[in-house]
Amino acid sequence: MKRAWRSRAALLLVAAAPALAVADQGTDNGASPSTTADLEFLVDIGKFLFFRVGSGGFPTASGTIDTVALDVGMTIPPGAVMAVPGAGTTVNWGGTAPAFVAPSANVPVEVRSNAGQITIRANVVSTLTSGGNVIPMSQILLASSDPGLPAPTLPNTGMSATVNVAGTAFSNLVTQRLATWTFSYVPVPTQRAGTYTGQISFTASSP
Asked: Which keywords annotate this record (predicted)?
């Protein structure tokens, strides 16, 4: 047992012995001496990716989860008299149904990276619910002010397909883009009134 232990210890000492490094050098003892010594350089630039959806800005986002508030309003049909707040008020109404107004909200989005092709996908963390009522998240539409920083199409649930962010420099290896994503909702008359809440997570990735 002792010989085996000593053998292992000797191997460890050999493996741990530092390798000898010899610098490049030259010698010349002529009448007009001239010699060279070379150095090799290694510059290691690490990959980074900055992604922001909402308030804040590079180099640090706010760290908070912003809220997109979409308030569905109604327009009174022409000729009708707007109701006065209160109980038992009289309204001149021809029976025509009011029209719903499709709301929208703008959110700033920023991507900065030197890691090559960047992709973005959406994940429905929780669908839009109000009590027992549900609105499919796919009814929330997204549009981007910059085609180079597109917004993914939201699914009903789960993960969306990925979209590619266009690079801006060095053959698309470096990306610096800032856009506005517009979230909008087209009301459906069959959906019940209520305050619906849900959450989406966006993920930016590099190869």
From this structure: Signal
